[in-house]
Specification:
The protein is α/β, with parallel strands linked by helices. The protein contains 14 helices and 15 strands. The strands form four sheets. It has a seven-stranded mixed beta sheet, with helices on both faces. Helix 1 runs antiparallel to helix 10. Bound molecules: pyridoxal-5'-phosphate. Its EC number is 3.7.1.3.
Length: 447
């Protein structure tokens, strides 16, 4: 077993216990930590997050409104979003004035699309991956409709080649080159939520720029997972949530990035007081004077409890040395999990699917649809259960859960497993692989 670089941060997180996550087959280990491989959906709570939220609750209880400016820990609420922003800027590879800690992912996506998607009769298409996360699909469709366009024509979805699950870089670049003059915005997810593919963000952004298209990214599954250099890559805009790899808690506050090359020409269309120059914000002048850069897009005063929760995790990232060492550890962990899965007698290689699994035939098994090369993926591996559409996935998922393996199901046939750099370890990978085999063995007996 290759050991992962030393990052003893697991103890800084609160790990759910078997007895609370449906592990009914582990009744004698019900108070032991479960095998949590679902940080791609909802990251775990850091102890520091809990501490910070409790501190803010206490400041609220003891000081009330005074906490905005006079805070016992010098974390006055008026400036707390900016505090989080500096960590976020480091994580996404941007300057601080290019980032805002605000809102929610889909709302931020609409704000950015409204600012950057300016269709003309020649250049009106939105290029994205097929089967983008549904909220993104709805956003793109409704953005096209808001401009009086037919989404069937305006939203150009890229499909993988027949028999493949991921998009090839050369195919994406070729479409941008061919369709460039008609594309207004190229927008992909950094890491695809279903397949776990990490798109070649730099080359897509470069190609889009060459063709005069705006390039934006949904970083929901990329932020805190893979290293990013948004500024250097010349990305125009990006949005993300923080409740996955950034561990801010369910529905946590989100993030937004706008490249500073836009500072002079792009001003926030929908102004709010939190986007106003902080030096005069509380003088309440009648005229909006936006903060330069991403900060100007803020509208409301943000939820302090949500930021406190995020900050706790970001401080833990900082203690870990941020993305470089974390990515190193992530690669080792995911490669290790993949190696264990390859060794399973139920593993089927992708090339054998078409011959062995025609029309619901073939014995129960699984393959991995996430790219094999770590440069093309983050932490997540997406397992596709076979034969397709026969309910194998559901049975395996239930069995995993009954053994305390918390994974993420995507109907009809996929389970996603994500060993997270900060709190997962090799033992988690071994436990998941072991119970996956046990689930198949039980399943084989029951059919
Ligand atoms: C890729 C992607 N985009 C958008 C969303 C929607 O996020 P929200 O509900 O925070 O707007 C999600 C949620 O998981 C997601 O994974």
């Amino acid at each position: 077993m290759t050991s992962t670089p030393e990052l003893p941060l697991r103890k800084e997180f609160l790990l759910p216990i078997n007895g609370e996550v449906g592990a009914n087959r582990l009744w004698n280990e019900s108070d032991k930590p479960c095998t949590y491989l679902c940080g791609n959906s909802l990251g775990l709570m850091s102890k520091r997050s809990k501490e910070l939220v409790e501190e803010e609750m206490s400041v609220w209880a003891t000081r009330g409104v005074i906490g905005h400016f006079d805070h016992p820990q010098k974390r006055g609420w008026v400036g707390l979003a900016d505090h989080a922003r500096s960590y976020l800027a480091e994580i996404v590879g941007a300057n601080e004035n290019e980032v805002a800690c605000m809102g929610t992912l889909t709302a931020n996506l609409h704000l950015m699309m409204d600012s950057f998607y300016k269709p003309t009769s020649e250049r009106y298409k939105i290029l994205c991956e097929a089967k983008a996360f549904p909220s993104d699909q709805y956003a793109f469709t409704s953005q096209a409709q808001a401009h009086g366009l037919d989404p069937a024509e305006a939203v150009l979805e890229l499909h993988p080649r027949p028999g493949e699950f991921c998009l090839r870089e050369e195919d994406i670049l070729q479409v941008i080159e061919q369709e460039g003059p008609s594309i207004a915005v190229v927008i992909f997810s950094g890491v695809q939520y279903y397949t776990g593919q990490w798109f070649p963000m730099h080359s897509i952004t470069q190609k889009a720029e060459e063709q005069g298209c705006i390039c934006g990214w949904d970083l929901a599954h990329a932020v805190g997972n893979v290293p990013l250099s948004l500024h250097e890559w010349h990305v125009d805009f990006a949005v993300w949530c923080t409740y996955k790899y950034l561990n801010s808690g369910p529905g946590g506050i989100a993030g937004l990035y706008v490249h500073e090359k836009w500072n002079d020409s792009l001003k926030p269309k929908y102004a709010g007081w939190w986007g106003h120059d902080p030096s005069t914000r509380f003088a309440m002048p009648p005229k909006f004077s936006p903060i330069e850069g991403a900060g100007g897009f803020q509208q409301s005063n943000p939820s302090i409890l949500a930021i406190a929760s995020l900050l706790g995790s970001l401080e833990t990232f900082k203690r870990a040395g941020m993305m470089a060492p974390l990515r190193k550890r992530s690669i080792v962990l995911t490669n290790f999990l993949e190696k264990l899965l390859f060794q399973s007698k139920h593993f089927v290689s992708l090339k054998d699917i078409s011959t062995n699994y025609q029309e619901g035939q073939g014995k129960p098994g699984f393959t991995i649809i996430t790219p094999h090369d770590s440069k093309d993926r983050g932490a997540q591996l997406s397992l596709l259960f076979l034969p397709l559409g026969t309910g194998v996935m559901q049975k395996i998922f239930e069995s995993l859960q009954s053994h305390g393996v918390v994974a993420d199901e995507r109907q009809p046939d996929v389970i996603r497993l994500a060993p997270v750099h900060l709190y997962n370890n090799e033992a988690d990978c071994e436990t998941a692989a072991k119970f996956l085999d046990i689930a198949f063995d039980k399943f084989a007996v029951s059919i």
